[in-house]
Design a protein that fits this description.
Helix content is 27%, strand content 8%. A hairpin with a 2-residue loop joins β1 and β2. α1 (59-69) packs across α3. By secondary structure, it is α+β, with helices and mostly antiparallel strands. It has helices spanning 59-69, 75-82, 86-98, 131-138; strands spanning 102-107, 110-115.
């Protein structure tokens, strides 16, 4: 026969069970260098180049540099060089074209891009400078390929 507790009194814990201490703080997982905006980062496929969580230039800047270095590059080649999707590259090319930084000329089924190096930077702190100054430093081999009009 088992003993029962008095009515209304809590039953004692069985001695063989390990009951967690509910007053103890929850364990904190080790901090990683992942995104800090709540997103989770997928593991990179084997052999893939791992990109840092941020860079000094935006993807728009990287696409502009890629186009300045190879004006006849395909969208998929630009996307691979920058490390973004083809869809994102198309959107960025459209942004740059509509803002006047690029001009697109169709040659058959291919697009040829011309960079207007005389356009100012968009940020007010450096708006006195032209985009060609950046291209001269980071893509000097293509300095003659920029539009000078």
């Amino acid at each position: 026969m088992t003993r029962s507790a008095a009515p209304g009194a809590p039953a004692p814990d069985p001695p063989d069970l390990d009951v967690p201490d509910l007053d103890a703080p929850a364990p904190v997982p080790p901090r990683d260098e992942g995104p800090r905006d709540g997103r989770t980062r997928r593991p990179a496929p084997a052999g893939a180049v791992v990109r840092p969580p941020w860079t000094f230039l935006t993807n728009h800047g990287h696409v502009l540099l890629a186009v300045a270095q190879s004006q006849d590059a395909r969208v998929s080649e630009i996307a691979a060089r920058v490390g973004i999707t083809t869809r994102a590259t198309l959107a960025i090319l459209k942004d740059l074209e509509s803002a006047g930084y690029l001009r697109r000329h169709r040659t058959g089924r291919r697009s040829h891009y011309t960079v207007d190096g005389h356009r100012p930077f968009r940020h007010p702190a450096i708006a006195a400078h032209e985009i060609g100054e950046l291209l001269d430093v980071l893509a000097p081999a293509t300095a003659g390929a920029q539009d000078v009009s």
